[in-house]
Amino acid sequence: MHRPLSSSGQIVVLGTVLLAAALPTIAADATVSETQSERDARMAWWREARFGLFVHWGLYAIPAGEWKGKFVPPGGGEWIMNTANIPIPEYEQLAKQFNPVKYDPAAWVRLAKAAGMKYIVITSKHHDGFCLFDSKATDYNAARATPYGKDLLRPLADECRKQGLKFCTYYSIMDWHHPAQYRHNDKAYNPTNIHPERKAEYISFMETQLKELLDGPNPEVLWFDGEWLPWWKEQDAVDLYNKLRKLKPSVIINNRIGTGRQGMQGMDKKDRKYAGDFGTPEQEIPETGLPGVDWESCMTMNDTWGFRTDDKNWKSVEKLVRNVIDTASKGGNYLLNVGPTPEGEIPQASVERLEGVGRWMAVNGESIYGTTASPFRKLTWGRCTRKPGKLYLHVFDWPKKELIVPGLKDTIEKAYLLADPHKKPLTVSRKGDDVAILLPEKAPDPIASVVVVQVGPAASASVR
Ligand code: JFZ
After folding, report:
1. CATH no. of 14-367
2. 305 lines ligand 1 (CB under 6 A)
């Protein structure tokens, strides 16, 4: 048995019979000490959740991809300050126009909840340096620099708690606005350099803001980003990680605090341990399962994170539902993004898709929440998730008569359609190493129909 190999911050226990609970897993780089069972308890809600909402919102929603009559190249609406090379004093003017009078945090949370999501991660500060929360460390924030004049995070956090979702925040280490950092040439801000004598000041600025977040809206996940700067060192990450875990022991921190992440694939390099609790693949779902590793794929619904008026390349509800399933079948979480308008509304195209995903989740959520990775290497017709004693077969391509489950060794107690309220048993027969399940003619759901296979109280499916 392989113990869960954490993506980071933990000792990798390769041994067989180590008593995990008694083993202090102090990483080589001395991130806060935690036993495996303490870590499991801290990660429990997040592993159970499997599906969350990402929100990229800030001043960039105003230009919405267009600067001085020209659309910047596709992608990053939220990168426009860099892409259109906008000087700080000019970009700052956007704050005077930022007045999201239609912002309705209760409606946002209702929508996320209806989609079947269990948490929300929102940009507290993106690369442009503008903060959505009231900060004493800078006036460059929604409460102090805009006609709206109010903190935007606190009401969302309150609504999340009220409606039973976890509230979490994104925070960029790179900051194109802070005077300690400066553009690396006259064409781009990214990646910034830092005035060496001001690095300590910037780090303490970050700590002040992160403490403000923890004391205020109190996020359950701190989702860092913009860590690829040459001046951001692993020791800086370890120090910050430790301080944050001391301030809030239960907090979960992504691997973009540290310096181990490998590009879009998002998992840490294996050469050593890096700070952070989970891997962050971006715009992609790993090819194969990563069982026992904590990771979360973040993805846009169109091609951009921040709101753009010209980006209409929306993924279908079918694609999004299958992405949720695909991610869960590989043992990860799916963090799906929306980019609200400058008025504070989630674009209608996103609302429709979230509602569509929600309709599927309302019937089939049991096959997603709290599940772990598929025991099968490959299934021609779809995906599989599991819980102790149960396999959930997600059928994308509904077969003519029989569903063949390859190489399933367990005795099957019962198989039924998750969409069937009566759980009427389906006829199961063994065909050598395989199992055949007799299906009704028509798929209950053209997107994905779930067949539940009960494999006995203690058993978990063993597959060749
Ligand atoms: C980053 C941000 O730059 C982007 O705006 C968005 O917030 C996203 C969730 O995260 O995007 C990245 C970061 C790193 C790489 C690519 C996109 N990378 O290293 O390849």
Report:
1. 3.20.20.80
2. yes
